[in-house]
């Protein structure tokens, strides 16, 4: 009998001791649902430094060792995207559940292969779209799904910062997965991206795009726009979702007021007997209502990721951000890259939703 | 002998008593360079209301009357864009100098006709690109022209607000002229927009675009992006200009700190002997310097517009924002409209600069 | 029959063409309730400059001339505080209604004399406590009077700026009248200042206090505190009113969110059978509710002052900020000055309310 | 030979597993200067929970056990203030160095006893005034000591939040130690608090002061003011230090711009031949210069506390925030409490500096 069925903590190994790995280590250690057994990194000294001088967790450079360890039920992969396919595939083949850092894989094809393999084996494949588990995005999802916002009219997301220029990927693949996974997680049933156009620039000659703008056409005529930038000296992480009834602004760098719901906007009455355009113009009106900043409980999103991972494994159900969600994000990223190549041409999406 | 040559105040008439006209009235009255004689509006009662019960300025509905008045040296036109061509042309033909509200005209062809007519007659044709006269934009221009910013790498401008949905024009023609005229006024010699792509949406069914994104390719690979939006419940008016040496952020809604100059960014060393890509990647470095908010003198921009109008007339020189500047803005607006029609296709510019 | 009874515009004269006079001129001109006849200043050229070159209003240096003018029903005095007594008294004796700039007079005794004289003659004596007419303070008053805030627990007001160091008065008399008049206007029936302590400093050697802190003890144990400062390089104008049910923060420099109502705080259950202190400590709980920023209509406060002045004259009722309100403010100011002299000693108030 | 002389890591025990203890645990573990051996708490289960399921550090409820452990060179005490005296004294008597949470002790007398005992035994007694080790306060100290600010004119500190109403102490003893220790750490040689007045209120009936205002008279006529408040629904942590040359604003909740140096203010020329007051008034002038936000390196202050503790032990020198600094803070706290009792009376300080 697997531990997944008993309620005993799941044995877990973290793979990758770089930027994100230490956060996974900390959160798995703090969770009663898991027992962290290994931290694996090709550079075992780095893994040891992450664990520090007081830990009982073991460091290793040998991934095969982990896959062979029967106590390990699940792995969490936080390595460069190019390695996701092979590492995740090996883990699935060894019967382990897999949580993988965003993006799910380096290509849509690789991502689909993982999704299919996990499905075939009945294993959990989850994408660590951390932002989707923040109290702010949870509230956003709720406001949209409960109809508080009405129909989604536009989404505008800005994620800019003096970030580390990555060696292997451009700013689109580095930062936009956050916005795209959030978008994927909050859009209501029946509304999804249909096409994307992307514009970018590499003004510093870094050899890859450092500033990029994505425009997504959504089902029903709504528009979403994402601005990602590695060169901005000021940090902005803000998303506005405009709805037919209300508009919400999420400013992630304003802890005192992360989410603000505005009950104001433009209304357009459209009676049946609408005669002509001049008449229509008369029917525009403006609501000037209150703004409400709902109380949010502060909580580290990654601890919710970890608990959702455990819950999905135990319940044998797809995680909120399962492999398919990761695949939908890859779909947009690949189309956006193609659009960049073709100077902003509109590229249709596969519609994996 | 014309008053323009004597130093006596120039006789001026304001045409249009709508949204902007009252501001022109107030600023012409406060200027020693002008003597305001008339306020003209088809709705003469509206003109009288604007003047109030204590003014010695005369209201009229008869434009011909103004053009026939020899005391009138100059007019200032603040009527809907569609009327600019005829009103300005008539004034030029009557030998009057012309200040015209943005945009210069409803079409590039109309604008060119005005520019040519003014040139032929040796009259001043000036575009009221008010923002170009703010202390903030003046400082921006200075920082760029003095080389403090280095080469311009990217420009990102956001102008969003719960604005009045206009009847005759879309959000692009309503708001983007501000950003485009600022861009035109700050770009250094030799750097200009070469092509534009625009994406927009009308999610409320207003019959015209209420949200729009413009991407401009600039000479030398830099990128400029403009976000205009009538549906945002929060007001944002912010422009970032990223340079090779410094980056400046102009937040027009933060009077305590409108302009901030950041001495931080990404540097890329590129030695001659650069061997391979891996090597190049090693040469990226980050500057983490101070931010300085220069002291700006608060001044109403429109009073500077009015004084520049007088100065240009007296000196028989082009105004800072002359007809040609207005024409360059129209060039981008028309191209952007065409791009919108063709779903974001990149449209080249005439390059009127 | 007086115009006050007919509905015809009241003839009004503004006295003082300094800092505030021009604002009164503009607002009286914009009001249908008044006909502005005179602007009076000892420096008649200054008065003419304020009126500008296009006005039909007359400038004069002769106050007696105005008092003798039968068309003048009311005066508005915007001169230094030391002159208020004589100017206002003369106007009352000439049968004119009086609106006077804050503070009502230079001393409590002078103020009382004006209040009594106005009462004796049945004339309106109103104090231009402009802030009390802002949409924000109106909302504050409403929130308190409607019980939304519950009992008032504490009030904290900060009004600091790199202000003009005044020649005749200290920072207390320059800035605190604003906060004290606001306090006077929002406190509920039965709650009033009982005593005041003030601390101050003149670190630049200006010969008068440039930084001051006032602490007021209110009926029932609540506390109010006011910080005024001429030396701060940043401008802050913010007032927090803590209540038993909710707390409101008014930030006058944040036009997008001037008033914010917080539904969070500390609750203390106090059952009858409360046994001991340890027990009491267990009953502290915390509410963590939403914040709401109510929609406020933007409006110039001084136009509401002007309309209230007309309404009070016509209805022969005390204005919202009548002479007695001005007197209560003087009461605190004099007590605070005495406290400053005695190094922060607590000084009781007359309780003129 | 003591480890203090060899460079080997110092053996350390943390006492108290409540609010602050876990932070000490984390920082001692991350430091190469220490080897964390014990976490002690009367509630040993709580200590174990803090250590988590992966730690090799031992938990104990037996303080005597720690004092008897020869491997332990130093302790860090993070227990309620009332216990500081006995715990610290016992440690000193056992020959251990002591780092103690603020405030140093519950009374000035207790604090002095500890200072004297440590001096007698040649042991390090350090107070964990964490804020003094932040990059912001370090910069503040530097700006003052390097003369960039000129003479200190005024200090205004606000520390308000919906905080936990403490059971054993009032808001003064809970929050003001932060501001007082910062003050102590940044004031230049020869400038110190001479007297204090305090006003407070307990509007919720908590049995102790929940809102308090302290005014300190400093050597030479400068003023310092501290506002602490448990009832504010918004969090403010801001300190302004006004100087004769420049003024600095430290806003701890604005990570993008924690410290801002304003080169503007009021100047007062005071020539020898200054004849009369009227003349003096003419010599006030205003500087309107730039604002600069210096780049600060983000660093956890507590890690610097830990390293300073090690450095002071090794070098046998007083720590930056040694016992005497803690004593000076207690001096003000006791005087402020006395002032509160006597309704704001000014209370002189011992001048322990």
Outline:
Chain A has 353 residues and is an alpha/beta fold.
Oligomer: homotetramer
Q: Give the largest interface.
A: A-B, 55 and 55 residues
Largest sheet of chain A: 9 strands, mixed
Query: How does the helix and strand content of chain A classify structurally?
Result: alpha/beta
CATH homologous superfamily placement of the largest domain in chain A: Dihydrodipicolinate Reductase, domain 2
Hey, roughly how much beta strand do the residues of chain A contain? 25-35%
As a percent range, the share of helical residues of chain A equals: 25-40%
What is the name of the CATH class of the largest domain in chain A?
Alpha Beta
Mean pLDDT reading of chain A: 93
Within the CATH hierarchy, at the fold level, what is the topology of the largest domain in chain A?
A: Dihydrodipicolinate Reductase, domain 2
Q: What order do the SSEs of chain A take from the amino end to the carboxyl end, as H and E?
A: EHEHEHEHEHEHEHEEEEEEHEHHE
Could you explain the architecture of this structure?
- Four copies of one chain form a homotetramer.
- In chain A, α4 runs parallel beside α5 (about 110-120), α5 runs antiparallel to α10 (about 325-340) and α7 (about 170-185) crosses α10 (about 325-340).
- Residues about 270-280 of chain A have low confidence and may be disordered.
- The radius of gyration of chain A is 22 Å and the shape is globular.
- In chain A, the strands form two sheets. Chain A has a nine-stranded mixed β-sheet with strand order 14-13-12-11-7-10-9-8-15.
- Helices cover about 30% and strands about 30% of the residues of chain A.
- Chain A has ten helices and 15 strands.
- Chain A is of the alpha/beta class and about 350 residues long.
- Chain A folds into two domains: about 5-130 and about 300-325, Rossmann fold (3-Layer(aba) Sandwich); about 130-300 and about 330-350, Dihydrodipicolinate Reductase, domain 2 (2-Layer Sandwich).
- Chain A has helices at about 20-30, 45-50, 65, 85-95, 110-120, 135-145, 170-185, 275-280, 300-315, 325-340; strands at about 10-15, 35-40, 60, 75, 95-100, 125-130, 150-160, 195-200, 210-220, 225-230, 230-245, 245-250, 260-270, 285-295, 345-350.
- β14 (about 285-295) of chain A pairs antiparallel with β14 of chain C, so a sheet runs across the interface.
